[in-house]
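Why this split exists: single-chain examples teach little about how molecules sit against one another. For that reason, every record in the complexes split bundles all components of an assembly together and asks for one structure covering all of them. Below is a record exactly as it appears in the raw files.
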Amino acid sequence: MMNKSNEISANQVFIFVVSGQIGFGILSMASTLAEDVGHDGWIAIILAGMITSLIICLIVATLKRFNNLSIIEINNIIFGKYIGTFFSVAAIVYLTYTTVLSLRNFNDVIRMSALRLTPPLVLTSFIIIPIIYLSWYGLKYICRYAAAQVVLFILVILYYLLLIKYFRFTFLQPIGVSGIKKIVEVSFSPFTSFIGYELLTFIYPYIKDKKKLLRSTLYANTFTIVFYLITIVMLTGFFGEVMLEQLLYPIFSLARAYRAPIFERLDLFFISLWFPIMLSTVLVYYFCAYNSLKRLFNIENNKPKCKILIWSFTIIVILLSRLPENMVQLRSLFDQLGYISTGYVAYIFICYILSFIKRGNKSNEKAS
Amino acid sequence: MKKLLKMVTILIVCSLLLSGCWDQRVFEQVGFTLSYGIEESQDGKLLITSAYPVIGGVEKGSVDIITTKSSLTRGGRNNMRLMTPKLIEGGKVQQVLISDSLAKKGIHDLLEIFQRDVTLPAIAFVVITEGSPGELLKKANEFKSKPRVSFYIYQLLENNVKLSNIPNTKVFDFDINFFAPGLDPIVPMVKVEDEQIKITGCALFSDDKMSGRLNNKESNLLIGLMNQLNNSDFIFSDPKFADKDGDKQGVAVTMFKPKRKISINFDEEGIPSVEINMKYKCNIDEFEWDDTMDPKVQTDLEKTFGDNLTTMSNEIIKKLQTVNCDPIGIGDMIRAKYYDYWKSIDWKEMYPKADIKVSTKVEIGNVGIIK
Amino acid sequence: MLFDFIPYLSYKKRGENMQKLLSNRLEDNYSDLNDKFLDCPDIKRQRTHLKDGCPTLIIYVEGLTDINLLQRDIIPKLQELNSTEVFDENMQTVRLPVASVSISNEFNLAVTDILSGKTVIFINGFDVAISLSVIKVEKRSISEPTIEKNVKGPQEAFIESINTNISILRRKIKNDRLKFKTFTLGEITNQKAAIAYIEGITNPEILETMHQKVKDINYDEITGIASIEQLIADNQITPFPHYLATERPDKVVSNLLEGKLAIFVDGTPFVLIAPVSFFSFMQAPDDYLGNWAVHSLNRLLRFFGLIIALFLPALYIAIVSYHYYMIPLNLLIPLAESRARVPFPPIIEVLILETTLEMLREATIRLPTYIAASVGVVGGLIIGQAAVDAGIVSNIIIIVVAITAIASFLIPNYDMALTIRYIRFIVMFFASIFGIIGVIICGVFLIAHLVVLESMGEPYFKPMFPFNRSDFKDILLRPQLKNMRKRPSTAKPLDKIRGGKR
């Protein structure tokens, strides 16, 4: 029963990857880019998106070599039981790390924008309820829930349209002044904002029609690129690069700039639109971590044990999310996340190469 | 054991929730400041005036206006909290009124709190007052025939923004224009004048320091040059338009969204010469009993209007150049199109030297229902 | 009689008695029956003789049998026959003027026949019982629907008798593809029940699952159709109704044509439709009986009402107690002035009014109509100006609660409306603790819950999430009938296109 509720179609992979990608990176990405390349951030986004597409192809190719296995099992095959388990644990630690950071960031955004005095532990425990609920029921439901976000993305874009009259095209000109070298250099950094695709390595066995997988993942990536592009262009054209650098969460500052006819301030409405989007990012990482743990312990069909696991995992995540002391530390941790995810991609690349050797061995064994 | 655990969890959750409502700001306990006035005190600190409507007071419709001394904008609120029955919050601030003398020293950092603190609105109007804003608020509060002072100013500004009499400058507009290289903010100005608050034009800023001012008519045209004019009522007053008796010396027109064309060239010395071509369409609202449908009269009128506007616009540009304020964004355009040149100069120095010419054409649309 | 349920009665529970046969001797049968019907004064045991003096026993339940018919046509005819003439050569039929006759030699079958209102005749010398359907049950006539009213559609509703209900359905679908699977429910009450479906449209898998599920119900009595719903629901921890209970035959017909199943149970005027999605509860029969544009607007209005009914009081609480700056400038002072006199925090204020309203609603359902009217007056006074004047609640909250109440009346289905009311209180509670975040997270959780729910293995929130384009047309809007050729996929119908191929 558990397995069936995890099964998803390739179309659902699209929304899964999108929810993994769009969430936190975008909140501060525009200002980080403005610091580095001024108003040419959008070029860097396109480049980074293209790099991401290449990485996605690589990941899918790696997964295709191992039929119907997730990275947890692949580790065991390639490295043997003990080293394999070590790498699996490392992968799960990576997922947990991301979950914890994004949960903490989510919590901070709420505390910054709406509830300043609410005790963070209470708030975190409250916002994690839907996450636990959906993770318990499985991947299929997560994807169904995540599909609801498409409406929100449309609303966000509509909100941009409300502010389009303040958009100054001159703020985006001249194109490419910061130099191609610099842009290319920088474009490797925002691809942290694109992470989310690497979750494929954890959910691969649950995907039904694997032939369409690459296509829908690439579509998802393209969707993310387009969404990021619209956002970056909007933000740069609205604020100008100099002001953009000063802002911590430019999107929220943008939300604060629209004066609605009767209600005047719509910023809270707009921020509310972001909550489900951020929530689903935490959700997909949380689910992958939890599910990988299940696979690691091999208790996928053992409900009572799963129950213990999900509660203890939740408590650990909530407690860990309190560890970063302040925003500065959180930011630097997020920066480290970029390196770690790059490391993870590199690791998959190694797996890809090793898979040939392993396969070679196997076929040799068969031959002999 | 399991039941016990469940009970304990429920107890903890309940007690947490019941002790909850940490952020609660129950609406009627909040005193929402609607206008904020900032001026300079004699000893170099800030005098913060805040107006908030009194709810449940003895007299209906009254506004409490309190002035306190502080070194920060936030300090005003904190001091105020020490003397009012309500919890003073600034989430609904409609206008930030800044005295002209303070504006001359730079106001950018005063407005910073509106961007940093999310509870404060970044969509509050920035307004420069001639004289002390505290005085203005207090005087305006005594006007019996007007709505509460903040509403009064708010409605006044909203309507005049619609009529393009004043720039639509909110806190975030101010900041964007301040930060953008090659752009400068302009801000509406008001003053109290016999039982009224009157809009007197707009204040010109160089960086964040007020450096000059324009009157109403000029600000109207400047907004046209900034390409933000929707429609406006305009009166050409010139002896040329005098009617037969000679006591009516002008034409009233409604002007519509103009078409703007800017071409930028550089002369040999590297000084930019900018040509701004404006094309207005207008309706004649008031003139005289005459044959306005006559094509000749129309072309004459159009030409006079055009000349009139051209001279006025050029005067405005001169004024802008002398106070080194560039709200039209010529610097921004040069930065966008001629980046290498932009990098080689200091625009703040170059702008007053630049050769900026405006030529205006006016086309008459309709003339009302009198021939 | 339209339907004969005898072959479908379940004998399992009676175990070894199943095979007990009737005796040749009338006296044996008589004493057996007497044992069975001890202390059953309503079961009449009438002895009589055939023409040749052969003793005969007529058994019927008083009040379920058409006595007139029995006296006038059957008994005289019986008395004119010789014992050899009663049956034809093959013992297949009886020479009696009755339309529906069955002959069996099983004792228990005879007993059930008697209990279901048939007249059973035993003749000495024959080991069989003759069951004659001369049933006449007191029942109310078909009347207008009471809780699902509409404007233009048919104005008839189901009644308590399953036979009548099935006949209504048969009258509406004159097609041999309309089939019924019949069985009895209720360990003690032995109620007849039937699952209606349309052969060739309904997916046999769904039919089989449902049939199995309903047959396996092990409960002494089925009070109403909701009992079945509760006993067979997939997910027990949910406030949402899993299946659609309706009293309207036209609704059943349209749902059957979408490949769904309809469960009839004797004794309840409601029919259960399964599987359904969330959006079935938001559709009214009137939607399809008029111009598509007008009714699309109606649909949108209803969804707007749903959102208002769920979130408006919660938003009020959140804004008034946390986010004062979201109140429009012009409302700021009037609202604050009316709030200033109220000693309670917003949540209590809303709860006072909402509970009063709920009490009022609950009271008017039970009370006789003439008292209910006066309750309305009292409630109107309390909720009206008096509460404001007394300083217990503010003006605005009355408007908020009133709008919410009106909006929740827009929801066409009674069960769903109750559910929405229930959820509203939860959202209000969290709004009072976390402000707008509470509302948002509740909304998120609600959607999460709705996508997890399934009705007979079909996603409950389909076609919204998961999205299905051809079904989605008929959700928020109501397209033209021409454009709705495809049957909704909720029930996975075999025949996907409406109308014959031409």
